[in-house]
Amino acid sequence: MTNVYSFDGILVFGLLFICTCAYLKKVPRLNSWLLSEKKGVWGVFYKAAVIGTRLHFAVALSCLSMAFYVVFLK
């Protein structure tokens, strides 16, 4: 079980948040509803989606390495 208050828990949460927002950007109805704001609190979703789509290779490698760490090393 990953604790949210530990450093690896924050990394897991951040990676899952970026991957989820990048996935939601591909869904047209959710894209216009959730990712339409580019500033403010709702802009965090848009910025995470942009990071997930532009750096998709790095994010995928980070997810795989974090999954290996959580499953086998922790």
Account of the 3D structure:
- This protein is mostly helical and 74 residues long.
- The chain is 76% helix and 0% strand.
- It is elongated.
- The N and C termini lie close together (9 Å).
- The mean pLDDT is 88.
- The chain crosses the membrane at residues 6-24, 44-72.
- One of its GO terms (cellular component) is Golgi membrane.
Question: Which labels suit this protein?
Answer:
Kish-B, 74 residues, elongated, Protein kish, single chain
SSE diagram, text form:
Blueprint: H1 7-25, H2 28-34, H3 43-54, H4 56-73
**Number of beta-strand segments:** 0
Relative helix content: over 70%
> What would the principal axes of the Cα set say about the shape?
elongated
**Average pLDDT figure:** 88
The helix/strand order is HHHH
- CA radius of gyration is 14 Å
Distance between the termini: 9 Å
What's the number of helices?
A: 4
Q: Which class do the helix and strand fractions yield?
A: mainly alpha
Low-pLDDT stretches: none
* Major beta-sheet overview: none
Strand content: under 5%
Summed up, what is this model?
With 74 residues, the chain is mainly α.
